[in-house]
Write a structure and sequence with these properties.
Blueprint (H helix, E strand, L loop, with lengths): L12 H4 L6 H7 L6 H14 L10 E3 L5 H4 L3 E3 H9 L4
Antiparallel strand pairs: 1-2
Keywords: Isomerase
GO molecular function: isomerase activity
Pfam families: SWIB (PF02201)
């Protein structure tokens, strides 16, 4: 009789590796190295705290003075945001 043990899913090591944000991104999330997941979480906290989601289409984020240099434009979709933020992580 074979038993199948359920193993907990291991988080992707590369995904959890702390990355250093650029000076521009550090203005929003802080300067200490963070995993990608935490950077995204802190960005969303900032977006919600400053009410930057587009009221008509909640999937879009309106950039304020701190986010505009990261995004490179006035509005981005939430899917586009992660790609643009990646460029600011080392």
């Amino acid at each position: 009789m074979a038993t199948t043990a359920k193993t907990a899913r291991k988080p992707n090591a590369a995904f959890m590796k702390p990355l250093t944000p650029s000076a521009t991104l550090a203005a929003v999330v802080g300067a200490e190295p963070l995993p990608r997941t935490e950077v995204t979480k802190k960005l969303w906290d900032y977006i919600k705290k400053n009410d930057l989601q587009d009221p008509k289409n909640r999937r879009n984020i309106n950039a304020d003075a701190k986010l505009r240099p990261i995004f490179g434009k006035d509005q981005v979709s939430m899917f586009e945001m992660t790609k643009l933020v990646s460029a600011h992580l080392k």
